[in-house]
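Customer escalation, tier 2.

The customer says the design service returned an amino acid string that "doesn't look like it belongs to this structure." They asked us to rerun it and document both sides in this ticket. The original structure tokens are below, unchanged.
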């Protein structure tokens, strides 16, 4: 299990000497977030001056950067940000049940879904899913393409020296090791991004498996969270798993290059993720619904995606809601360098402005909670 799930109090004690930001406490078992009501400690401070604790739950994909931002916000304001890394499916359930202040999902909800549940959605950060590999004797810079990757997860490619892999890696001495696909066992936005990509590049995958947060996997073994998939890949020779890039870096996993839509083989990098996001038309995306897989461009990484925040339009506590939005404003305005350090792409300034205009829909009674808060927000 990755150290990403270490309790906050222990991480903070380590930070005192290591000077590295870290993440918040996890719920017991890592599969449920505490209530965002007064009983959880998330209630507004005395006098309604704002939250003393912000509780969120959802995607493991952005967990490293949300933890980093939360620690920085706590140091600046003394407000605790408790983000539970439970998967996108869990985050959506928690926000719908109103047991957290915000949910997080890598699978965007449609405008109709948002309307049905009285939610607003906005993108926080862009990252990428990468194929992580554990293969003894693997040549440096192993290359794959979408159809080959789909065939591995369909069970059609059973060994690493399969001719289809060899054709993408001419001259490489590929071992005859068995291919062991590793997938997410929980409801996952990372799975949604990955299967969305496979559905675009493989008609067989689209017809037999499809695109969702959970699917019926033809072969392989399941791990819980990006952490669980990374742990399996570390242990099993011949394995291949899909994880958010930050997890691959933190766990020192080898990652494959990918052939993109333009037929170019690219390595995962901030520049490749930015190229994939370059054509995104956020201004004309209802509810900020945006999918960044298989984007055009010679340097684009083909399995990129945004991670989204979900909040209720109607907020019972204006000061608390404003305090939550101040945290997201801080993450946008002051968190870009932190995001880049963890291999995420921060949202462009024009998208931040679009998002903050959309916050007018978040109200307490009839009054927008952000307009007044923006005038006195905590500056970088």
């Amino acid at each position: 299990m990755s150290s990403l799930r270490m309790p906050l109090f222990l991480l903070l004690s380590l930070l005192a000497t290591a000077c590295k930001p870290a993440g918040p406490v996890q719920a017991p078992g890592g599969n449920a977030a505490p209530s965002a009501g007064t009983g959880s400690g998330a209630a507004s401070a005395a006098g309604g001056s704002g939250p003393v604790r912000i509780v969120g739950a959802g995607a493991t994909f952005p967990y490293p950067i949300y933890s980093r931002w939360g620690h920085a916000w706590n140091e600046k304001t003394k407000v605790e940000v408790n983000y539970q890394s439970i998967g996108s499916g869990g985050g959506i359930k928690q926000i719908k049940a109103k047991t957290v202040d915000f949910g997080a999902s890598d699978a965007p909800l449609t405008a109709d879904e948002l309307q049905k549940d009285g939610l607003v959605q906005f993108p926080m950060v862009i990252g990428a899913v990468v194929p992580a590999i554990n293969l003894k004797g693997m040549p440096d810079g192993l290359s794959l393409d979408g159809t080959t990757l789909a065939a591995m997860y369909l069970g059609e490619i059973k060994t690493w020296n399969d001719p289809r892999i060899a054709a993408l890696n001419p001259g490489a001495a590929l071992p005859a090791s068995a291919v062991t696909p590793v997938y997410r066992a929980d409801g996952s936005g990372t799975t949604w991004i990955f299967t969305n990509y496979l559905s675009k590049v493989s008609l067989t995958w689209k017809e037999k498996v499809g695109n969702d947060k959970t699917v019926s996997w033809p072969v392989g073994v399941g791990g819980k969270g990006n952490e669980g998939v990374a742990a399996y890949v570390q242990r099993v020779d011949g394995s291949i798993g899909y994880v958010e890039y930050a997890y691959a870096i933190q766990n020192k996993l080898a990652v494959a290059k990918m052939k993109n839509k333009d037929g170019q083989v690219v390595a995962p990098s901030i520049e490749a993720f930015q190229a994939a996001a370059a054509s995104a038309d956020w201004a004309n995306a209802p509810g900020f619904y945006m999918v960044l897989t298989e984007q055009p461009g010679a340097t684009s990484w083909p399995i990129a995606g945004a991670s989204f925040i979900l909040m209720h339009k109607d907020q019972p506590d204006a000061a608390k809601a404003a305090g939550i939005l101040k945290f997201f404003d801080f993450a946008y305005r002051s968190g870009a360098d932190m995001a880049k350090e963890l291999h995420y792409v921060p949202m462009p300034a024009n998208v931040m402005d679009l998002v903050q205009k959309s916050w007018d829909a978040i109200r307490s009674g009839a009054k927008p909670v952000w307009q007044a808060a923006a005038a006195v927000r905590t500056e970088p």
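Tier 2 assessment: The sequence is consistent with the input. The domain at 129-280 is CATH 3.40.190.10 (D-Maltodextrin-Binding Protein; domain 2). Residues 124 and 328 are 8 Å apart (CA to CA). Sent an explanation to the customer and offered a walkthrough call.
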